[in-house]
Specification:
27% strand; 9 strands; 160 residues; four-stranded mixed β-sheet; five-stranded mixed β-sheet; alpha+beta
Length: 160
């Protein structure tokens, strides 16, 4: 018999990657987060006043915070940052305020000083990218970013 007859060809079955924190399918509405009071209605989270009788849940952003599982990491370093730390952190907090106002699931989780840099963790990729872009636009420097896990996470690096 021909070698080809016995040759087994395994197919690699591509498994779908699941984002634990992303809503799957249609969920009951309205809902309100027990942690931050964000309100889910018409398919999106907002800071609107919750309706009476809204189902109480924990929103995806609060769940990420509870689990300490960031979607975004922003690493900031360099002599310029050290000399203008408070000014840059104010810019970062203002960016969070603007992003969070429109998109309640995009928040800063923590700002931690490491050995040679400051690390900011976020609940979403958009706010991490927005922080990097704001730093680059306002203060130039070097901006780099890498998406990971099918764009469900991001690492942003800024230094000057």
């Amino acid at each position: 018999m021909d070698k080809g007859q016995y040759e087994r060809r395994d197919r690699l079955v591509k498994e779908k990657r699941h984002d634990t924190y992303k809503e799957r399918g249609k969920c009951s509405e309205p809902r309100v987060c027990t942690e931050c009071n964000a309100f889910f209605s018409d398919g999106r989270w907002s800071w609107s006043e919750p309706l009476a009788g809204a189902k109480k849940v924990i929103c995806p952003a609060c769940q990420r915070i509870i689990d300490n599982y960031p979607a975004g990491y922003v690493e900031i370093k360099g002599p310029f940052f050290e000399g203008h730390r408070e000014e840059l952190l104010n810019l970062i907090r203002n960016e969070e305020k603007l992003e969070k106002g429109e998109h309640p699931m995009e928040r800063i989780m923590a700002i931690v000083d490491e050995d040679d840099h400051t690390l900011i963790t976020t609940t979403g990729v958009h706010i991490a990218r927005r922080i990097g872009d704001a730093l680059s636009k306002a203060y130039q420097g070097h901006l780099d970013f890498q998406y990971g896990d099918a764009e469900k996470s991001i690492r942003v690096y800024w230094n000057r």
